[in-house]
Amino acid sequence: MNATSADNCIFCKIALKKIDAKIIDENENAIAFLDAFPLTAGHTLVITKKHYTKLQEVEFDQIALFFNLVHKILPSIEKGTGVQSTLIAIHNGKDAGQQIPHLHVHIVPRKSGDGGNAIHSMFGSSHRLGEDEMNKVFKNIRG
Q: Domain total for the chain?
């Protein structure tokens, strides 16, 4: 983590323990804490300790430790909040809704009637592609 990131990023400050947070667990590469502005009770964030903006910037060996922490705390979040389900989300860049440019996973406890919906409800309509356009996108991604 460079000095500029640590000085300007609230998540870097939490990772360095310069700002208090309700820390649930951590390992050498990641830290999990309750979101200060939760969508539901138990809304948890898991962040990388090193400053990365997007998932694809993280070294492969560190990805495993990052997601190991997500995996480890899921049962405790569900049990502790009395739910059977959780929404797990990453806003991977500003255009995807990322408000703090530091990689983080949202773990949001969910239950029937909580007001949240499926990911498809985030968009006004489904983007139906014709076969030619679907093939073009497919080739561009694979290519």
A: 1
